[in-house]
Structures are given as structure tokens and as C-alpha cells.
Amino acid sequence: MIDARYLVDHASDAAFAIDGEYRIVAWNDQGRRLLGYTRREVVGRHCSDVLQAVLPDGEPLCVPNCEAARCFGRFRPFGARSCLARHKDCHWTPVDIASVVMSRPARNGDQPTGVTVIFLRSDKDRAEPPLAGTRLRIFTFGRFGLSAGNRGLKVEKWERRQAVILLKLLVANLGRAVPRACLIDALWPEADEEAGWKRLKVTACSLRRELRAAGIDEEVVETIGKAYVVRREAVWLDIQAYEACIAKGAECRDRQDWDGALDHFRAAHRLYRGPYMNEDIHADWCAEERERLREIHLEMLADLAECHAQLGQYAEAVGVCRTILVDDSCREGIHRALMVYLVCLGHTDSARAQYHHCRRVLAAELAVEPMPETQELYRQVMADEPLGSATKPD
């Protein structure tokens, strides 16, 4: 049988190979040219962390237990046309996806294993007209982005930069009418009412023209009296998909379906590609929503760590806790959970060191001592007493 790495290295298209755990084991130069990642950057990573593709209807393709993963698990190929894959620099690249599954026969009663080779063909040069009636897809986590049909929209090349900002302001208030006075104040704070209103009308017209040029016939931006609104039903928004994944994960968690909860929380984690509207990090109009989503994300990660722990995946739980503490080092409940998971791995010395690190952080940042339950946990670790089962960190 031809080796998967040989197929990847000699493919004319971008290609990579994944093992039975969906970890990338081979990557070619065409993949680097298409998505920007070098072989060293991707080998060993979960394929969904790198590809981050979405289907033509805007739904995420690359999530745990996705349709492609289910096909590969049954040793069946998977293909999809007109997808969008996330480039390393965060812009969207249109691709067609094809695959070859190379199964290995079972030996000595073991289950068969397989390696899958996935081919990515760029369709950005395909001569196709804009797709009429396509739904606008809006990505707000990390770098702001739009797509329609099988194309990413290059908003940086729009005629008016303020049209992008206007769309962002309306998306931040999705489904709610924003008075024109508020929009004028945000876009042109120095302008008087008459001049600001003229600018806003021109900018709104430019925004609608850009969307129509992308093949979006449905009215996305609607005028309601002296206000504008982005119609909720006319767009797909990553925040809505993200919060839906978290809600489904919480339902599974509440009935102790840890595998199901893990899948949904990991799907949410993949949708969260960075802080909300990260390019507008100093803008007041999105600060409150950014903080709300950041808090939701940290709470979701705590749930994700609990799922890993409940399934006995303590190394993964440790990794998630460390990710949370990088963002917010004062979360004492996460320090406690991390201590428990380290003990479960047999790393008692690391658990003790984590307590002392927690104590230093709390003293430096909040001028407080660890809570009594944290000190009691440390006493149990020092005495080598049983800690009981790991529970969700508070």
C-alpha cells in the first residue's frame, strides 16, 4: 500500500494526512501556500484546529464528531465543495475538499486503524458569477470577516471604510434598531446633525451596494424610521452558533452525558477564534459585549475541563485549566481544579507548586490569601490524603 505521507508529498493540490485521532501527521508545501502554515506548525495538532472550515451554508464543518470525522471513522471518504477554510492570517479561502481513507487491517483481534489523506483545492480563481440570494455569514470572533456563498468578502477593499464600521455597529446590536443619532455619534463624533445624517445615508447606501455586489439579494440592512437594523433572520452569525453549542453542551452536562457535552463544548471552543471584534479593541461600543463573551468563554472552558476530568482525561483537563489561567490568573477555583487534576495524574509536587503560585498571584493582584477551601485542599495534598473525585471548578 502506498504510504499516506508519499501521497501528501507528491500531491499537486494542498494535502495533509490525519491519524485515527484526527491529528495531522503529514503536510505538504502546497498546504503552506494555501493556508499559510508550515509543516512544523501543524503536525501533531487536531485537524479542526488548523482547517477551521465552514460549509457553504455557514455552519462549521471542522468540529469534533463532524460529518467528515464520522466518515473517516467508518473508513469512508468525505468530500465537500465550496467550503471556506481559515488562513493563518485569519482571512477566508474558498476550497473544495476531497479525501482518501487508507485503512489498515486488524491484527490479533484489534480494531482496524486508518490514516486519511485530505486534499484541498483552491477554487478562488473559478469563473463563477456571484450566487444570487446567498446568506451573509458574519464572523466576529478575532478578526472581523464576512462570507457569502463560496466566497470570503474582502471588506478591506470596500470603497468606504466607514461602511465596514457601520456594519459592525449594527451587528453588535443584531435585531435591534440603532437610532441614526447613535450611529452618527460613533462614526463622526465631530459632525453636526445635518452633516452626519448626509454622511450616514451615503455610507448606508455604500454598504448595501457592497452586499448586493456579493450576490446577497435579501435585505440585510433595513431602515426603520430614523434608525437602522441588521435583520437577524437574514444573516448567520458566529456568536449565535457559539452560544447554541454551549447551550447544547450544558444540556448534556446536566444529564451527565460527558461525551456529548465534550463534543459541544469543543465545537464552541473552535468557534471562539479570539476576543470579540478584536480589531476594535479600544472601541467603547463593543467593550461590554466583548467582556460578556469572554466571561462566557472562560466558564465554558471550566465546563470543558470538567468533561475531560469526568472521562478520566486529566492531562487534557490540566491543559484547559492552564489556558483559563493565562487569561485570568485570579480564578481561584481553577487553581484548585488544576491541583486536583495534577494529583490525579500523579504529579503531587506540581500540585503543591500550583498552590504556592496561586497564593503569590492572589497576593500580588488582589492582596488576599487563598480561600479556606483552597488551603484545605493544599493540606490534603501535603498529607497525601484522598481528594475525592474532581468536580467542576467554581
Using brief descriptors, characterize the structure shown.
single chain, 394 residues, alpha+beta, Beta-Lactamase, Arc Repressor Mutant, subunit A, Serine Threonine Protein Phosphatase 5, Tetratricopeptide repeat, 3 domains, 5-stranded antiparallel β-sheet, 4-stranded mixed β-sheet, 15 helices, 12 strands, 16% strand
Offer a concise description of the structure.
It contains 15 helices and 12 strands. By secondary structure, it is of the alpha+beta class. The protein has 3 domains: 119 residues, 2-Layer Sandwich (Beta-Lactamase), CATH 3.30.450; 102 residues, Winged helix-like DNA-binding domain superfamily/Winged helix DNA-binding domain (Arc Repressor Mutant, subunit A); 145 residues, Tetratricopeptide repeat domain (Serine Threonine Protein Phosphatase 5, Tetratricopeptide repeat, Alpha Horseshoe).
Q: Could you explain the architecture of this structure?
A:
This protein is α+β, with helices and mostly antiparallel strands. It contains 15 helices and 12 strands. It has a 5-stranded antiparallel sheet with strand order 2-1-5-4-3. A 4-stranded mixed sheet has the order 8-7-6-12. It has a 3-stranded antiparallel sheet with strand order 9-11-10. A hairpin with a 5-residue loop joins strand 1 (14-18) and strand 2 (24-27). Helix 11 runs antiparallel to helix 12 (314-327), helix 12 (314-327) runs antiparallel to helix 13 (332-344) and helix 13 (332-344) packs parallel to helix 15.
